[in-house]
Structure formats: structure tokens, C-alpha cells
């Protein structure tokens, strides 16, 4: 590798190259007409750490980073022309949690300047970054191809050995998919937290027992990173007090905003994601600590649990799985809708495939999701896949039972409720939107359509019937 590059082997360029090399810096050189390069390498540069290249791209690749290049071409147009030639060989990768609309803008601006730009979602936290994250790159595909081998090598590997990285789509597609990943992450975390709350506060199950429950769940269909860390968290003793650490942590959830963006954009594009919305609302509500403490003294407590603990724990496992599937169904359908709205051409089978390892939402469930979209790429919702249809069908009674338990014991389960209501709305051929339409037409002459004939109708509702 060379420490620096030089373009333009006129007399000044040649001598400068020789000087740099003599002072201890290996140098790469390029000239527009290759004969000059050959002549220089065979002549004054012979035996020196000066490497000549016939193609600019090869010279750029030979440079240590940050790549430093000296232009020794004729002043004027040649400087512009050479700079313009160099820019396409540089690839800028934004691996932060950027807002996808910012990535869209940067993509536009930087591609107008001819610079290759990749907006890449990276999931997996600190450990993932070090040992193998899940990577969601978007941007110019050719630019991605030029760097993909590095990222294929560093990405997490699923159990079948496949790297958890795939080209997602143009412009902001990578950051968009990462954003939805985070929305699902919030929902997963909230569903687990609600289940823990029901069992711990509602049924008075100890941290130790709950830890064993989560460990057991992690050996079954719920197997996932978030369930695994929950078991570990429940076992952790606080150094300061000798009590369970989880009981000492202030119950106010913070957020940096990526999950919230999912809800905001879902509203913009008309994608129903009630479980994700409920997860965000729950984090916001948790921040009202002072008000919560005050009002906890104002109202009577619901009656204590008097039932069969084992039955609730078993149902909670099924309900958690069902409500998780329903939240993934929302997230995946949101991606399908976004793919059309933003022309991302997303491959949902690939996206769920690269979420199987490395990322925060990695879970066994993603194998089935990926298979569902692989066999039916145009699947509009996971509920229409046979495997998931049965999954929900078998667990819907448990989900209803758990939601009832929460309501009876006064344990807030906004996300679990949202998953159930989402399911009930999605499987209802009839919804009360007829009444909404009538109300809109009543007060604002907004018109309505009918079930029995084509066209748009308006009624004078004030007329006596
Ligand atoms: C990931 C995570 C990560 C995120 C944190 C914090 O996939 O590795 O999504 O990118 O920044 O989980 O998110 P909040 O602060 O919004 O909870």
C-alpha cells in the first residue's frame, strides 16, 4: 500500500514523487497517458517504492486511508476534470441511525456532486458492531457492490451461515428499514415489559421465578435476543443494595427517536402499526412519573389476583408470541406500503433474512417470516400465510385471556391490547366506519359510498325521517 498518490507525471510531478519517496513515503503514481508512467517506473523510479498504475481506480485502491492524492496536472480544466474523475472512486458510508429523509436528501445532493453515498442501518449495539452486526445498506447499487465484500465479511452470520447483510434499495431505503426495525424493537420490548408487569406486579411472581420462566420461553418458539437478555436482567443483583437491580431502576423509559419516526411515517403513508404506536405512547406515559405517583393515591386498587398462576403463565407465553407476530405483521406490511410509496423495491424475504442474527430483534420467528415472503413475495400481510394463520388461530384465546387479566388486575397492557385489536380489526369484514362516514357526511357533507351500489352519496341528515 502507498501512503500517498500523485497524478500527473510531468517534470514537476516526477520530481515531487521522487522527493516524497526519498523521504520515506511509498507513493503511487498515475498519468493520463500510460506510456509516461511506464517510462518513469522503468527509468528514474526503478528500484524505489514508487508504484505506477495504468488505471486511476487501481491507484486509488492502493492508497492507505485517508486517501491523500496530489494533483500535478496542468492548472485549469485538467484539475476539474481529474477531480471529477476521482470523486466516483470515493464511497461515503453513513452508518449512523440517520433519519431516512435526511439520507434521501444527502443522496440527492451527493449524487449531484457525483459522490457515491451509502446510507447504512447498523443494528446490534456495541457487541454487534464488534462481533457481527446486521447491516441494512441503501444507496447506489454499484457503489455498494464496490464495498460489499468488506461488509459481507464483518456482518453477523445466521445459523445457516448466511451473512446478515443485503443491498436494501436506493437512496434512503437502508435507513428506512433500520427505522422500522427500531419500531419493531420498541414493540417487542414493550410486549415483554407488559408480560413481566402482569406476572410480577399482577400475579406477584418473583424475579427469580420469572427469570426461570423467561429462560424456559427462550428454549421454545419465543427464542430471541430480547427474551434472553430479559432473563439475564431479572437475575442481576445490585452491587449497591444487594437487591435485584431491575427493582432499583427508575421506571421512566427514554428514547432517541428512531422508533417514534416509524409511527410518524406510518401515519404519513397510511400504514396501521398500532402495537408500535402503543409502545411509543407507553414510553412517553412512563415519563409522567410524578403524575403517576400522585394519581396512584387517588384511585382504589383493583382486586388482587385470585386464580391459577400456572394457567396465566402458560397463556402469557402464547399471548406474547401471538402479539409479537402481530406486531411483525404490522412492521412488514408497513415496509410493503413504503416500498411502493418511496419506490424502494424492497425484498421482504431478504430483509427478514438479515434480521435473523446480529440485530436487536433477532428471533427464531424471523426464519418463518423470511420463508413466508420467500414463497409468496407479494404477501400483503403475514396473517395470510398458512403458518402464521395457524399460529394466531391457535393462540387467539390465550391473547384474549391475557388482555382480560390485565384489565381485571389494572395492569396497563397497551401494546398487547393493540395487537389484539389490530387482529380483530384486520379479521373483521365489517367495521363501524359506516357510522364514521355517516357522521362526516352529517356535519360536513363529506359524502359516503354505499355497499349496494356504485357512486358517491350525500344525504340531508336534518330532514325528518
Ligand atoms: C440497534 C438499536 C440501536 C438504538 C438503541 C437505542 O438496532 O442496535 O436499535 O440502534 O439506537 O437501541 O434506541 P432508543 O434510545 O431509541 O431506545
Question: What descriptive keywords fit this protein?
Answer:
465 residues, alpha/beta, 4-stranded parallel beta sheet, 3-stranded mixed beta sheet, 19 helices, 55% helix, binds 6-phosphogluconic acid
Would you write up a description of this structure?
The model has no long low-confidence stretch (mean pLDDT 95). This protein starts with a strand and ends in a 21-residue tail after the last helix. Helices cover 55% and strands 7% of the residues. Helix 2 links the parallel strand 2 and strand 3. It is elongated, with a radius of gyration of 29 Å. It is α/β, with parallel strands linked by helices and 465 residues long. A four-stranded parallel sheet has the order 3-2-1-4. It contains 19 helices and seven strands. The site of 6-phosphogluconic acid has 12 residues, from helix 8 and helix 11.
* Average residue pLDDT: 95
The count of strands amounts to 7
Count the helices. How many?
19
Strand sequence of the main sheet, in spatial order? 3-2-1-4
- Form type: elongated
Biggest beta sheet attributes: 4 strands, parallel
Ligands bound, unique: 6-phosphogluconic acid
Given helix and strand content, the structural type is: alpha/beta
N- to C-terminal distance: 88 Å
Quaternary state of the chains: single chain
Proportion of helical residues:
40-55%
Tell me the β content. Answer: 5-15%
Residue ranges: pLDDT <50 for 5 or more in a row?
none
Amino acid at each position: 500500500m502507498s501512503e500517498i498518490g500523485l497524478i500527473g507525471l510531468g517534470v514537476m510531478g516526477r520530481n515531487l514523487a521522487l522527493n516524497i519517496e526519498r523521504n520515506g513515503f511509498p507513493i503511487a503514481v498515475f498519468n493520463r497517458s500510460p506510456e509516461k508512467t511506464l517510462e518513469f517506473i522503468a527509468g528514474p523510479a526503478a528500484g524505489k517504492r514508487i508504484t505506477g498504475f495504468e488505471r486511476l481506480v487501481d491507484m486509488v485502491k492502493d492508497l492507505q486511508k485517508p486517501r491523500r492524492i496530489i494533483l500535478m496536472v496542468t492548472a485549469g480544466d485538467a484539475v476539474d476534470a481529474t477531480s471529477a474523475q476521482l470523486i466516483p472512486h470515493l464511497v461515503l458510508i453513513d452508518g449512523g441511525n440517520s433519519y431516512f429523509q435526511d439520507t434521501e436528501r444527502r443522496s440527492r445532493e451527493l449524487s449531484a456532486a457525483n459522490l457515491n453515498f451509502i446510507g447504512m442501518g447498523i443494528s446490534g449495539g456495541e457487541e454487534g458492531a464488534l462481533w457481527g452486526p446486521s447491516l441494512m445498506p441503501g444507496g447506489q447499487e454499484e457503489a455498494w457492490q464496490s464495498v460489499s465484500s468488506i461488509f459481507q465479511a464483518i456482518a453477523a452470520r445466521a445459523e445457516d451461515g448466511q451473512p446478515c447483510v443485503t443491498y436494501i434499495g436506493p437512496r434512503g431505503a437502508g435507513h428506512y428499514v433500520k427505522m422500522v426495525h427500531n419500531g419493531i424493537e420498541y414493540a417487542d420490548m414493550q410486549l415483554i415489559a407488559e408480560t413481566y408487569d402482569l406476572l410480577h406486579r399482577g400475579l406477584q411472581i418473583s424475579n427469580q421465578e420469572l427469570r426461570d420462566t423467561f429462560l424456559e420461553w427462550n428454549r421454545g418458539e419465543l427464542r430471541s435476543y430480547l427474551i434472553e437478555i430479559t432473563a439475564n436482567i431479572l437475575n442481576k443483583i445490585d452491587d449497591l443494595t444487594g437487591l435485584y437491580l431491575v427493582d432499583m431502576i427508575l421506571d421512566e423509559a427514554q428514547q432517541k427517536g428512531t422508533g417514534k419516526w416509524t409511527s410518524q411515517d406510518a401515519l404519513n403513508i397510511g400504514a396501521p402499526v398500532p402495537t408500535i404506536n402503543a409502545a411509543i405512547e407507553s414510553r412517553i406515559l412512563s415519563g409522567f412519573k410524578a403524575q403517576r405517583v400522585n394519581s396512584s393515591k387517588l384511585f382504589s386498587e383493583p382486586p388482587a389476583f385470585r386464580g391459577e398462576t400456572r394457567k396465566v403463565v402458560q397463556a402469557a407465553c402464547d399471548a406474547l408470541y401471538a402479539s409479537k407476530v402481530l406486531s411483525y405483521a404490522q412492521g412488514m406490511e408497513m415496509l410493503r406500503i413504503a416500498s411502493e410509496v418511496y419506490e424502494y423495491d424492497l425484498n421482504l424475504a431478504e430483509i427478514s433474512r438479515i434480521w435473523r442474527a446480529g440485530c436487536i430483534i433477532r428471533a427464531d420467528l424471523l426464519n418463518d417470516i423470511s420463508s413466508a415472503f420467500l414463497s409468496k413475495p407479494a404477501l400483503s400481510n403475514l396473517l395470510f400465510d398458512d403458518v402464521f394463520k395457524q399460529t394466531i388461530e391457535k393462540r387467539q384465546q390465550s391473547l384474549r385471556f391475557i388482555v382480560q387479566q390485565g384489565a381485571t388486575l389494572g395492569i396497563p397492557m397497551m401494546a398487547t391490547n393493540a395487537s389484539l385489536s389490530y387482529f380483530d380489526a384486520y379479521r373483521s369484514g365489517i367495521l363501524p366506519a359506516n357510522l364514521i362516514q355517516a357522521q362526516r357526511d352529517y356535519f360536513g357533507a363529506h359524502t359516503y359510498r354505499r355497499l349496494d351500489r356504485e357512486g358517491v352519496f350525500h344525504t340531508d341528515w336534518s330532514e325528518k325521517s
